[in-house]
Design a protein that fits this description.
The protein has 155 residues and is of the alpha+beta class. The chain is built from six helices and five strands, in the order ααβααβαββαβ.
């Protein structure tokens, strides 16, 4: 017996053909964002916020953001990290105007229960030792991170 289309000796069900006769709701299931919302338990991401006032070179900014990402992951709950990995480890890099704003977003993230990692530079290249350059937040659910970062602009 078995599932329809999967009886012993069958080649399986016929493929679903999407054409003009396919109802719109079925087409929407194949939309990437809709698929993720419907079939993945959590929509996870990580945010890195970097200070815009430091005018870091692209290489320095990349290194600092990498430090923030790794440090935040190392501090995070293993299950959240695993869920985030299964979803492709989505990250977003955002900018804060200055140190005061960066610290404000760090505290807002902590206040809603998000893991944060504040990064201080060693001071060997572009900035003074101990300069706070960025913060890593999460990984955690998109909505939770967005509740803190939604007003920030992309780098």
């Amino acid at each position: 017996m078995g599932l329809p289309g999967f009886e012993p000796g069958s080649k399986g069900p016929k493929p679903l053909m999407l054409d003009q006769a396919t109802p719109q709701p079925l087409l929407d299931v194949f939309n990437h964002k809709v698929f993720i919302k419907l079939f993945l338990k959590n929509n996870m991401k990580q945010a890195i916020i970097v200070r815009n006032d430091l005018k870091l070179s692209k290489g320095k900014m990349s290194a600092q953001c990498s430090h923030a990402s790794v440090e935040a992951v190392l501090k995070s709950d293993r299950k959240k990290v695993n869920d985030w990995q299964k979803e492709g480890m989505k990250k977003v890099v955002l900018k804060a105007d200055n140190l005061k704003d960066l610290l404000k977003y760090n505290q807002l993230a902590k206040d809603v229960g998000l893991v944060t990692a504040l990064i201080k530079d060693a001071g060997r290249t572009e900035v003074e030792p101990g300069t706070i350059t960025c913060v890593g937040i999460g990984p955690d659910e998109d909505e939770k991170i967005d509740s803190v970062t939604r007003n920030l602009k992309l780098v």
